[in-house]
């Protein structure tokens, strides 16, 4: 079966493990702490993971985010300016045809979206994107 | 008595905006002492493909005055780079003689005096003459419309864009992309787009619900000219749902989407395109960056930020051609495409001097037919101006000063806000202000003039937010407008600082007191992107104000202090 993006979204939803961990205030350091918890402090590589996010959110309440890391067993998304930065973890089994997922997340304000992928060999990859949430203005 | 045409032929210096061979030829051309239609159109045919670009017409069917900005700051890597060079600096950079036609067409300084001599610019009947002349030279030239065409006038508003569609169809474009068109509402846009006899392109126009391409707006179109395949990829304005009311076109999502742009370039190359042209409404700095991120684009025809440059700018391996606004310019770009690649180009930015280029009679008749039902409303004189009225510039223009004054007095507000749009023709001292003139700088589908209360803290957030849309050092975060205009409110801005730290010294001009973050102020404005905004239409507010004044005189505005540039 050919996996379309729409199928992929449905599959991904099934394997989503959304986490909501307490009510700490949101600080970038909180994201760093949670990343360290996942990686055990291991080095974070770059280049084998692709995070696609808009530069400026059209609607901060539903921002499309796409992440892809061939060879990943899990990808976790963080929004470092949200009250709860840890957004979602996508888990991929050995039969997952594509190690990528799309979702939409709410962003409280302009902030970084960070993706951490755990690879099959136990190493970690990181990608981040700054997404601006603006009150809107007027273009030419 | 000397006629304007005589004046142009004997007077001043130079003609011609022949760009291709570098800065040097400008001064030489300045030695010529005449300006004729033949000169403006003179072009030694080159290569095997011709592109014709017009963009950001903003529904200006008739000739108008248009003053180029005297304030256009670049930030980050674009500091001091064109198009962020104005006035005498711009003329020096390109070797343009003071007082020459190029001075008047391309730069600021002595605007009112030069306008008296050189007259109005634009007019789609003059544009038709130019397009016909290029087609006489190269019958299969590709005509591309960069968008912001179906917006900006009394007749465009009342016909919901039909006047512009009728006139542009007669020019026979080959493709178009979009921005303000979407503020007609998605149903009307769909209706008009389905009627078009040419391609409506946008690789970045997506279905908002599924984030996938739409059927109505294909990403590109392939053209074959003399055995050579040329792909034209459309790039609509990326930030429509942010800069304009999202609720008017909720079915669509946009964004820069440069990864999809790369995929489209790769796709058309795989299909045999030997030349890739992007018809863009990104704005100049965004185009410049995109050309370094996406590989394989030969030409970007650049719109949105209303810049006009006498020669293309090279970014990576891509030439970027910005073609001005309001029907003031047409670009001709001849390309030599051989062995699957662009071997060379020749370019000319043709200024549409309306007293030099003869109108095309058929087009004049068609334009007048669109205007006929509205002629008496359009022509009604509301007042006179003793000042030059203009909008373009990063911080304020006299038109917006007048509009802010109208909001303050007609809406009994302490502070007025006017959007930093870049459209709207200029007027020169001594002119009658007609209803058409007022609509030319205010017409839109969400023109309600609201009256509300804002705290000092929120006002600062608004100024900081808009400032970051202009002065963020990364062009991909810029939306291509100018700073929101303020009435009754002064401030200082350091454009080199990050968001949240640019604005200081906010002052209520009425009392001279510092703005209190916790106090509420009565604020009037227009063009809110929020649904359900209530108030009289801005053109009625301005008309009442001008009628009361009779004669308009706009005092110099020193309420914004700029540093860090």
Automatic annotation (TrEMBL), chain A:
Signal peptide: 1-28
A Pfam family: SoxY
Keywords: Signal
Coiled-coil positions: none
Residues covered by the Ig-like SoxY domain: 37-138
Matching InterPro entries: SoxY, SoxY_sf, Sulphur_oxidation_SoxY, TAT_signal
Matches recorded under Gene3D superfamilies: SoxY domain
Name of this protein: Sulfur oxidation protein SoxY
Species in which this protein is naturally found: Roseovarius aestuarii
Automatic annotation (TrEMBL), chain B:
A GO CC term assigned to this protein in UniProt: outer membrane-bounded periplasmic space
SUPFAM superfamilies: 5'-nucleotidase (syn. UDP-sugar hydrolase), C-terminal domain (SSF55816), Metallo-dependent phosphatases (SSF56300)
Pfam families: 5_nucleotid_C, Metallophos
Sorted UniProt keywords: Hydrolase, Nucleotide-binding, Signal
One of the record's GO molecular function terms: nucleotide binding
One GO-annotated biological process of the protein: nucleotide catabolic process
Presence of keyword Signal: yes
Superkingdom per UniProt: Bacteria
PANTHER family hit by this protein: 5'-NUCLEOTIDASE-RELATED, SULFUR OXIDATION PROTEIN SOXB
Family, as annotated: Belongs to the 5'-nucleotidase family.
UniProt xrefs under NCBIfam families: thiosulf_SoxB
Annotated protein name in UniProt: Trifunctional nucleotide phosphoesterase protein YfkN
Organism: Roseovarius aestuarii
Classification lineage: Bacteria, Pseudomonadati, Pseudomonadota, Alphaproteobacteria, Rhodobacterales
Gene designation: yfkN
């Amino acid at each position: 079966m050919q996996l379309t993006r729409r199928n992929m979204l449905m599959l991904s939803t099934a394997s989503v493990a959304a986490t909501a961990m307490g009510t700490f205030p949101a600080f970038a350091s909180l994201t760093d702490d949670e990343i360290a918890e996942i990686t055990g402090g291991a080095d974070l590589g770059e280049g084998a993971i692709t995070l696609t996010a808009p530069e400026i959110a059209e609607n901060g309440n539903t921002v499309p985010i796409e992440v892809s890391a061939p060879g990943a067993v899990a990808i976790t998304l963080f929004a470092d300016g949200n009250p709860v930065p840890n957004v979602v973890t996508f888990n991929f089994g050995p039969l997952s045809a594509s190690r990528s997922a799309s979702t939409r997340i709410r962003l409280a304000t302009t902030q970084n979206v960070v993706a951490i992928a755990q690879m099959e060999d136990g190493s970690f990859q990181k990608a981040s994107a700054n997404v601006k949430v603006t009150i809107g203005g007027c273009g030419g | 008595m000397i006629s304007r045409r005589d004046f142009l032929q004997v007077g001043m210096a130079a003609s011609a905006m022949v760009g291709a061979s570098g800065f040097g030829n400008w001064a030489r051309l300045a030695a010529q002492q005449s300006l004729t239609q033949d000169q403006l159109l003179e072009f030694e045919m080159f290569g095997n493909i011709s592109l014709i670009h017009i963009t950001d017409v903003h529904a200006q069917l008739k000739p108008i005055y248009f003053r180029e900005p005297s304030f256009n700051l670049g930030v980050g890597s674009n500091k001091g780079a064109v198009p962020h060079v104005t006035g005498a600096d711009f003329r020096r950079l390109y070797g343009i003689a003071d007082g020459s036609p190029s001075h008047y067409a391309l730069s600021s300084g002595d605007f009112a005096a030069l306008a008296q001599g050189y007259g109005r610019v634009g007019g789609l009947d003059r544009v038709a003459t130019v397009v016909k002349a290029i087609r006489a030279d190269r019958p299969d030239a590709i005509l591309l419309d960069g968008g912001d065409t179906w917006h900006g006038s009394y007749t465009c508003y009342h016909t919901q864009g039909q006047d512009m569609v009728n006139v542009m169809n007669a020019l026979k474009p080959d493709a178009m992309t979009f921005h303000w068109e979407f503020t007609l509402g998605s149903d009307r846009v769909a209706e008009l787009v389905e009627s078009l006899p040419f391609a409506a392109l946008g690789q970045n126009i997506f279905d908002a619900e599924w984030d996938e391409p739409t059927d109505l707006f294909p990403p590109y179109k392939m053209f074959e000219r003399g055995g050579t395949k040329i792909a034209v990829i459309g790039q609509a304005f990326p930030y429509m749902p942010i800069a304009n009311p999202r609720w008017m076109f909720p079915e669509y999502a946009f964004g820069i989407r440069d990864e999809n742009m790369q995929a489209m370039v790769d796709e058309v190359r795989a299909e045999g395109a030997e030349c890739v042209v992007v018809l863009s409404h990104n704005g100049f700095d965004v185009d410049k960056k995109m050309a370094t991120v996406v590989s394989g684009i030969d030409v970007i025809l650049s719109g949105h930020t209303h810049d006009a440059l006498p020669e293309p700018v090279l970014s990576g391996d891509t030439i970027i051609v910005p073609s001005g606004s309001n029907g003031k310019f047409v670009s001709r770009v001849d390309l030599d495409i051989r062995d699957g690649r662009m071997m060379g180009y020749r370019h000319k930015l043709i200024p549409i001097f309306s007293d030099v280029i003869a109108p095309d009679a058929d087009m004049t008749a068609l334009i007048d037919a669109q205007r006929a039902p509205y002629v008496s409303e359009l022509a009604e004189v509301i007042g006179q101006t003793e000042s030059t009225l203009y909008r373009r510039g990063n911080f304020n223009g006299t038109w917006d000063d007048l509009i802010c004054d109208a909001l303050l007095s007609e809406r009994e507000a302490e502070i007025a806000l006017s959007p930093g749009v870049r459209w709207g023709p200029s007027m020169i001292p001594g002119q009658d202000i007609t209803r058409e003139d007022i609509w030319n700088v205010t017409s839109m589908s969400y023109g309600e003039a609201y009256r509300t209360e804002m705290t000092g803290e929120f006002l600062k957030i608004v100024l900081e937010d808009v400032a970051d849309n202009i002065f963020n050092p990364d062009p991909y975060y810029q939306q291509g407008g100018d700073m929101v205009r303020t009435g009754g409110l002064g401030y200082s801005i350091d454009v080199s600082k990050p968001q949240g730290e640019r604005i200081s010294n906010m002052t209520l001009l009425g009392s001279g007191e510092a703005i209190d973050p916790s106090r509420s102020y009565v604020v009037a404005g227009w063009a809110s992107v929020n649904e359900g905004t209530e108030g009289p239409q801005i053109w009625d507010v301005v008309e009442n104000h001008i009628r009361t004044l009779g004669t308009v005189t706009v005092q110099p505005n020193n309420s914004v202090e700029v540093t860090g540039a």
